[in-house]
Protein 1
Amino acid sequence: MSPRDSAIVLLTLNEVEGLRALWHRIPVGEFRECFAVDGGSKDGTVEFLAERGIPVVTQPIRGRGVAFRVAAEASCCERLVFFSPDGNEDPADIVRLDDRLLDGARVAIARRFGPGAVNEEDGETVRLRARVNDTLSRVANGLFHSGQPRVYDTINGFRALRRADLLELATTVKRFPIEYQITIRSLCRGWRVDEVPTIEGSRIGGVRKASSWPVGVDHLKVLATELPNVRWLRA
Ligand SMILES: Nc1nc2c(ncn2[C@@H]2O[C@H](COP(=O)(O)OP(=O)(O)OP(=O)(O)O)[C@@H](O)[C@H]2O)c(=O)[nH]1
Ligand SMILES: [Mg+2]
């Protein structure tokens, strides 16, 4: 069977422990490309990947938003599946996300909320991050989405889209809320956004790079930037 015309893009910043644990489950052989965009790892991540023949593209400056653009420019595949190997994301969903694109979706997101999905904080009492995420998604749906069904997880980074579409979106966010901007801009264009319910795992090793408050504020900044595109102004 010929490989999918699709690339697995590993987003890494000191994730060697997650990579070690998950490597055997990442379906590298099914995809035409698998490469990493690395934000400057110093923990052996780059060496781990190099030993397995995985190309590592280094970013000129740090940030997930930069990494998304670097990936789109580095790949020659039609489609990209972004996977962060820190334990939160289930490698089994990589193929499922690509399948949604093959089915006609323009964006496919692994959703941690809504029917059949589980997020990291389920079972906890406060669930602060989950609540903030849910609120941001509801706001994005209310302001920018004119179709149905609603998009439950506008923020999750575990997603797939066509390379040309990503370039066409002309994203401007350099850091974490890149996914929020991608989703909002896709909704504004009326693109079909599919979601696949996922079970979010816990971080396997290393440390979190997304500190909650600054990242939360950055999401609000993205909302402000995209406000000129609210649907009743476009109607
Ligand atoms: N290429 C690249 N990857 C990054 C950068 N910053 C973070 N990442 C990766 O993006 C993924 C998500 O970052 P996390 O720190 O796990 O954020 P999070 O999932 O909100 O936090 P946890 O719940 O602790 O996992 C991880 O795989 C990071 O290694 C960056 O600047 N460049
Ligand atoms: Mg994570």
Protein 2
Amino acid sequence: MRYVLGCLLAGLLFASVALASAEGAAELYGKSCKGCHGADGTKVVMGMTRPLKGLPVDEVKAALVGYKAGTYGGEKKAMMERVVKPLTDAEVDALAAHVAGL
Ligand code: HEC
């Protein structure tokens, strides 16, 4: 009985994590990115970024991973570093997919 319950619980947990990554990415974008890049990703931040909308997923991911590692970016990269440092790799993946689909 305990085993069955354990499996059930593990299953539920897994399902909610999977759900969280798709929905969570939209929420995370709204919370952490929209203010600068715009709700639909068309804003050019401080006249220097490319609009996020229309960027291929690989480029978004490379930029986010690079900002996190401190290996990508221009003059204002510290702004992005602060935003992406606390994100997990899974969140970066989910966000890149979300941004590419804007
Ligand atoms: C405080 C404002 C701000 C927030 C919040 C912010 N960004 Fe940025 N973003 C910038 C600036 C400024 C740059 C350009 C930095 C540089 O490299 O000099 C940039 C650059 C980028 C780039 C690279 C664009 C290019 O032209 O190469 C991507 C991709 C990006 N941001 C995605 C995101 C995502 C996803 C989020 C949310 C997790 C986010 N940003 C949150 C200000 C912000």
